[in-house]
Amino acid sequence: MVVMKRNRGVAVTAAIAVIAALTGCAEMLDAPEVHAARAFPHSGKTLTITSSLGSMRIMPGETGTVRVDRWLRGKASKNGASSWSLRDGTLYLSADCSQVFGDCGGRYRIKVPPGVELVVEGGDDAVVLSGLAQDVKVTNDGAIRAVKTTGRLLLMGGDGSITGEDLSSAEVRARTADGAISLDFIAPPTTVDARTDEGKVTVAVPRNAYAVTAESAEGSARSRIKSVESDRTIVARSGSGNVLVKAAESS
């Protein structure tokens, strides 16, 4: 009987521990965001932004200053689990979500000086370029989105989609291994080069004279814009998705 009571006590203790653990996990699954902001002086002609974790939204700022707002949650928000610094022309953004069960992550809003050429190196989370006038090169495994840009764009994806909306950029080159590409222009571009290994490609441009190449190895390829001899070129290619080049709806 003593053994049975002892076993029953152990079982009760274990059950309480499990309930406590589950309660803790439930809180972790909906961790609150912790906000912080910093300003970094920057006078160089180029700026590299590198992030190990977290989505980035990059937008115009003021001359001589890089302003960063960050929202971290879960383990990433704890003391010692994140860092940010600007050294030798590179903005380093880091947060740690290793060995975590539950909610952990981050997001950044970065305001950059006008006229500064940008190089953005991301991870698995999305990168958004909003209203930028300077030239930008992005390398990112996650999704890439550009909205209302006017500078030249080089967008290099991995497993995510690449999207361009209301673009006035004269030159856009987009590459991704596994994802769709959709580029929508509101001003006639001079060079568009969009290629994906797996996914569809859609390019919409204002009516003008373009030399168009639309090709797909394992899908349909169509251009609703007549290809003519022109200094304005559009290349749209996919390994295993449909390809469409068309006139923008607003043109």
Radius of gyration over alpha carbons?
A: 24 Å
How much of the residues is beta strand, in percent?
over 45%
CATH architecture of the largest domain: 3 Solenoid
Shape, per Cα inertia axes: globular
Q: Outline the biggest β-sheet.
A: 11 strands, mixed
Percent helix, as a range, is 10-25%
**What is the total tally of β strands?**
21
Question: Gap between N and C termini, in Å?
Answer: 87 Å
Given helix and strand content, the structural type is mainly beta
Which sequence of strands runs across the widest sheet?
A: 1-4-7-3-9-11-13-15-17-21-19
Which consecutive residue ranges, at least 5 long each, have pLDDT under 50? 1-6, 12-27
Encode the helix/strand succession as letters.
HEEEEEEEEEEEEEEEEEEEEE
CATH topology of the largest domain: Pectate Lyase C-like
Number of helices: 1
Organism: Thermostaphylospora chromogena
Protein name: Adhesin
List keywords for this structure.
globular; Adhesin; Pectate Lyase C-like; ten-stranded mixed beta sheet; eleven-stranded mixed beta sheet; 251 residues
Written account of the structure:
The protein has 251 residues and is mainly β. The chain has 2 domains: 1-30; 32-247, Pectate Lyase C-like (3 Solenoid). The chain contains 1 helix and 21 strands. It has one helix at residues 2-28, and strands spanning 33-41, 46-51, 55-60, 65-73, 82-87, 90-95, 105-112, 117-121, 127-130, 136-140, 144-147, 153-157, 162-167, 171-178, 181-185, 191-198, 201-205, 211-216, 221-223, 233-238, 243-247. The strands form 2 sheets. An 11-stranded mixed sheet has the order 1-4-7-3-9-11-13-15-17-21-19, with no helix packed on it. Strands 5-6-2-8-10-12-14-16-20-18 form a 10-stranded mixed sheet, with no helix packed on it. A hairpin with a 2-residue loop joins β5 (82-87) and β6 (90-95). It is globular, with a radius of gyration of 24 Å. The protein starts with a helix and ends with a strand. The model is unreliable at 1-6 and 12-27 (pLDDT under 50).
